[in-house]
Write a structure and sequence with these properties.
The protein has about 375 residues and is an alpha/beta fold. It has helices spanning about 1-20, 40-45, 80-85, 90-100, 110-115, 120-135, 165-175, 205-220, 235, 270-275, 305-320, 345-355; strands spanning about 55-60, 60-65, 70, 75, 105-110, 140-145, 145-150, 155, 185-190, 190-195, 225-230, 255, 285-290, 320-325. Strand 13 (about 285-290), helix 11 and strand 14 (about 320-325) form a beta-alpha-beta unit.
């Protein structure tokens, strides 16, 4: 028995020494911890990439390098990691979006996907998107797609789990990597802040404001041309605190997610009080809008056909940019029924708007 045990131990030690460390074959090089992997800046890896006009903030508008005001109209794709697994992470996907008339694409980066794939491999996916969008003349929002209370690090689901430290480092990495790449115009700092009636702890606007300003400072230390997007509470809907305590940093814009169920029809007066007034002084971009006619999963999305025209006319009047959620046949509210890109009701509606086929109310022109 002892001889057998000694033989097993000897064999294990031999295999270990031959392989260098557990899990490595003998012909693999052992990489010690002091060898640092560095992500080469995008512009150095792809110097031939088409350079779009730099977007910046002027008053309550987004403008290009010529000073022309740009109103962004586009959509959010699903997470690149999901699209890879679905088999649709390719240039064609982005070409279809371009054909629908979008001038901006929002890319949601879920913390869980970022963890599982790893920083370097995930950045490679973002680089694919930036190359395709640059060629197609589409701007990009990179969105740190977490939900909950980052201040106390109490998040909605496992897929959203992150920390302040990770969030700072995520944006430090993104800002350094996409410096001098105007295609990546917007950094959406945190998708949907919410306290969920205290279920996610507590956080005051002052605390949230300070945290967002700290993130912005990290970004600007690496890329002072980026436009940070800051959301309010109530799942990124409520911007009322901005009236008295706006973010004290330049070149910033604000985010709202005004889904149909946030307020009751006819909406407009409530929209004006909750976020619309901000657009009179600062740029506002609704990075998630959308509707469904019948959905048991989330009643907040349901609408009988009034929401689309109402919110398009309101945004047109206020000069608010917008992004529809979501260009995926599974996540709701879907813009497409299937991977043949057959549009749903909301997909067809917003495609018509992006293609200039929607007739705005004359009072809004």
């Amino acid at each position: 028995m002892k001889r057998t045990l000694l033989l097993l131990i000897f064999t294990a030690l031999f295999i270990y020494s031959a392989s260098g460390q557990p899990g490595l074959r003998s012909n693999e090089i052992k990489k010690e911890w002091w060898h640092i992997n560095r992500i080469t800046p995008f512009i150095k890896q792809y110097p031939e990439t088409n350079i779009l006009s730099q977007i910046s903030v002027k008053g309550n508008s987004f403008v290009d390098e010529s000073g022309k005001t740009i109103v962004f109209k586009g959509l959010s794709i699903s997470d690149p990691d999901k699209l890879v697994k679905d088999g649709y992470w390719n240039r064609k996907h982005f070409e279809v979006i371009k054909s629908w008339g979008a001038n901006i694409i929002r890319i949601p980066v879920h913390p869980i996907a970022f963890h599982q794939r790893g920083v370097e491999e995930y950045i490679k996916l973002l680089d694919d998107a930036v190359k395709w969008c640059s060629d197609l003349g589409i701007y990009v929002i990179i969105d740190w797609h977490s939900i909950g209370n980052l201040h106390m690090e109490i998040l909605s689901q496992d897929m959203h789990n992150t920390t302040k430290k990770e969030t700072f480092n995520f944006w430090r990495t993104i800002a350094a990597h996409y410096k001098d790449v105007p295609t990546v115009a917007f950094y959406e700092l945190f998708n949907e802040p919410t306290l969920y009636n205290g279920q996610y702890g507590i956080c005051t606007w002052d605390e949230w404001k300070t945290l967002m300003e700290q993130v912005i400072d990290v970004i600007y230390a690496n890329n002072n041309k980026a436009i940070p997007l800051v959301a309010g509470f109530n799942w990124a809907y409520d911007l009322t605190p901005v009236k008295f305590k706006p973010i004290e940093r330049p070149n910033v814009a604000y985010v709202t997610h005004p889904y149909p169920g946030k307020r009751k029809y006819p909406w407009v007066d409530e929209w004006e009080k909750d976020f619309g007034f901000v657009a009179d002084k600062f740029p506002v971009i609704a990075t998630e809008i959308g509707f469904m006619t019948d959905n048991d999963e989330d009643k907040n999305l349901n609408d009988d056909g009034k929401y689309g025209p109402k919110i398009m006319n309101y945004f047109n009047k206020k000069g608010i940019s917008w992004v529809v959620w979501v260009f995926d046949p599974v996540w709701v509210p879907q813009m497409i029924h299937n991977w043949n890109y057959e549009p749903t009701e909301q997909g067809k509606f917003f495609r018509d708007v992006m293609q200039g086929k929607f007739k705005y109310d004359s009072i809004n022109k």
